[in-house]
Structure to design on (335 residues):
């Protein structure tokens, strides 16, 4: 998390130098606001992770460092916020049924839009994952992820064939421009069961987590099977800038979808949960998705979104476009 924060602050500093030389643009300001907002969110996440530290001296020392850094980032946010009042999620359109490719944000490249729309069978994948491991494919998604090139500007496509993959997958900060393609919702399934009750912080409960910029996923199901009695149990966590999730199912109970930070776009996805099941501090749009509120445990109430903005100058928020909210299948009572 600290390395990610350093990277985001370094990117912001590069744009700031252009800004002081009068070589900046509206998009540049929005980039800086995004990176500074994400850096501040990282500090909040680190602070939450200290809650379980028993050594009070260590906790107090770290809290002090985090507080000082957060104040500096917050001041920088305030400076940049006055340069632009355009908080429009940077080019995400509302709705356009006549031209399907234009339904994605403007920062999605034409080549990536074609990959999002093309049949899976017609796409030449760089790596293939299958349960049988035949024909040179990988049996585990994590094994394929290890082969992803670092800091690549080229799109790396990983095709995950139909099957149930019981593993926790992490796409790191340096694994950029990675795309996962499955065989469809309910066919290609990645499932885990990490939870707060199992002594994981909420951040580390995710079945599937992505931090590398340019992350794309389509036609998959990401699931956390820990159950409602396990409290926080994330299925999908994303902190990748310019990420897209298309035609996926994200299933869990409490804290199902963790939209941690940066710019994210979800389209035609199903999200199942009970308490705060879409939460985080990203600039995120969910468009033409279906939200399924599962039956909560006794004395619980369904809460769909829990936006985590702490600073008024962060360019973050959860925007929901044109999607129904349903009573989901799956009681929280287990026999």
């Amino acid at each position: 998390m600290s390395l990610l924060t350093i990277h985001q602050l370094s990117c912001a500093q590069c744009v700031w130098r252009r800004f002081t030389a009068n070589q900046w643009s509206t998009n540049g300001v929005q980039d800086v606001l995004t990176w500074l907002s994400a850096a501040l969110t990282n500090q909040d996440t680190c602070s939450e992770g200290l809650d379980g530290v028993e050594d009070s001296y260590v906790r107090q020392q770290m809290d002090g460092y985090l507080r000082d850094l957060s104040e500096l980032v917050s001041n920088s946010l305030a400076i940049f916020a006055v340069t632009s009042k355009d908080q429009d999620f940077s080019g995400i359109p509302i709705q356009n049924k006549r031209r399907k490719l234009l339904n994605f944000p403007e920062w999605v490249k034409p080549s990536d839009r074609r990959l999002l729309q093309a049949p899976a069978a017609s796409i030449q994948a760089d790596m293939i994952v299958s349960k049988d491991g035949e024909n040179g494919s990988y049996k585990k998604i994590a094994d394929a992820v290890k082969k992803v090139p670092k800091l690549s500007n080229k799109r790396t496509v990983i095709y995950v064939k139909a099957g149930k993959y019981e593993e926790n997958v992490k796409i790191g900060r340096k694994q950029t421009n990675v795309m996962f393609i499955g065989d469809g919702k309910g066919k290609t399934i990645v499932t885990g069961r990490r939870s707060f009750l199992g002594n994981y912080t909420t951040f580390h409960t995710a079945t599937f987590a992505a931090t590398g910029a340019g992350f794309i996923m389509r036609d998959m199901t990401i699931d956390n099977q820990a159950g409602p009695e396990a409290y926080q149990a994330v299925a999908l966590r994303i902190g990748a800038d310019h990420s897209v999730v298309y035609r996926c199912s994200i299933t869990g109970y409490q804290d199902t979808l963790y939209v941690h930070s940066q710019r994210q776009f979800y389209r035609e996805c199903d999200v199942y949960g009970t308490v705060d099941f879409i939460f985080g501090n990203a600039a995120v749009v969910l468009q033409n998705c279906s939200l399924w509120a599962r039956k909560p445990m006794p004395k619980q109430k369904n809460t769909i979104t829990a936006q985590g903005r702490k600073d008024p100058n962060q360019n973050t928020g959860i925007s929901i476009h044109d999607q129904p909210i349903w009573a989901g299948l799956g009681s929280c009572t287990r026999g």
